[in-house]
Amino acid sequence: xxxxxxxxxxxxxxxxxxxxxxxxxxxxxxxxxxxxxxxxxxxxxxxxxxxxxxxxxxxxxxxxxxxxxxxxxxxxxxxxxxxxxxxxxxxxxxxxxxxxxxxxx
Length: 105
Hints:
Elements (H helix, E strand, L loop, with lengths): L2 H10 L2 H9 L6 H4 L35 E5 L18 E2 L12
Parallel strand pairs: 1-2
C-alpha cells in the first residue's frame, strides 16, 4: 500500500473506532446489575447486560494472528446462555453478529 493511501485511511478513522473494536461489550454493565442503566431500552449500552451479549476482546498474539478467528463460527456456542465449553480459549468466533466480517465501523 502506498504511503498516501495509508495516511488517508488513517486520517479517515474516528477516535472512537479503536475503542469500539477493542472494548465494545467486553465488560458487564455495573449500572444494569443495580437496575439503573438508562441505556437498557433501547439497548444502546456500551457494556453487556446478559451473558449472551458478551464478546471477547480481540487480542493479537505473538504469532501475528488474533486469539480467535473471525472466519469460523463456533458450533458449540450456546446463544441462550452465552457459553462455549472452551470458554475464552475457543479459537472460533462465538457471536456471528460480532464477527469482523459482519460488524464494521
